[in-house]
TrEMBL record:
Record-given protein name: Prostaglandin-H2 D-isomerase
PROSITE patterns from the UniProt entry: LIPOCALIN (PS00213)
GO molecular function: prostaglandin-D synthase activity; small molecule binding
Enzyme class: isomerase
Source organism per UniProt: Vireo altiloquus (Black-whiskered vireo)
Stretch forming the signal peptide: 1-19
Residue intervals of the Lipocalin/cytosolic fatty-acid binding domain: 35-177
Localization per Swiss-Prot or TrEMBL: Cytoplasm, Perinuclear region; Golgi apparatus; Nucleus membrane; Rough endoplasmic reticulum
Its EC number(s): 5.3.99.2
A GO CC annotation given for this chain: perinuclear region of cytoplasm
Length: 185
């Protein structure tokens, strides 16, 4: 009897740990409403590149559009030195609406992308589990339709990042920049 009880408790604990490992996805995700211009307001990551480049990072502009196949074309433009750099990514849809996969051609990493929460008109919270041969990491992005968000949304972002195991020094509210191609940065 005691062994059975311990086995059941062990399975329950394993289920709880597995549940904590999963990243939620927006209920009733509506991909067409996610398209358009977004600004990256917050970025958090426990990756080495983030730790090395954190002090250089600034807000970027991202345009999201749907492809005919139902995937997402994600085009981000960000300042790098005194110029703007554009990076294109294709997020491939999965069976779960709001969840996408992406393989980085540059790094060879596999990305499991989740649209965690959005109201489509103000903000979108996106979390990514990144896997590569050297290990895995987590990245969380907070997008906004404008260059500013309320303190409540920023706190929601910070709290979610902490729930994903990220520390305060791995969470960054990005400094504002001018529009790509403008003189003010």
């Amino acid at each position: 009897m005691q062994a059975t009880l311990l086995g059941v408790l062990g399975l329950a604990l394993l289920g709880t740990l597995h549940a904590q490992d999963s990243i939620p996805v927006q209920a009733d995700f509506q991909q067409d409403k996610l398209t358009g211009r977004w600004y990256s307001i917050g970025l958090a990551s426990n990756s080495d590149w983030f730790k090395e480049k954190r002090h250089l990072m600034k807000m970027c502009t991202t345009i999201i559009s749907s492809t005919a196949e139902g995937n997402l074309e994600v085009t981000s433009t960000y300042p790098k030195g005194d110029q703007c750099v554009t990076r294109n990514s294709l997020y491939t849809k999965t069976e779960q609406p709001g969840r996408f996969s992406y393989t980085s051609p540059r790094w060879g990493s596999k990305n499991d992308v989740h649209v965690v929460e959005t109201n489509y008109e103000e903000y979108a919270l996106v979390a990514t589990k990144i896997s590569k041969s050297s290990g895995s990491s987590t990245m969380v992005l907070l997008y906004s339709r404008t260059k500013e968000l309320s303190p409540e949304r920023l706190e929601m972002f910070t709290q979610f990042c902490r729930e994903q195991g990220l520390t305060d020094d791995e969470i960054l509210i990005l400094p504002q920049t001018g529009e790509p191609g403008s003189t003010g940065r």
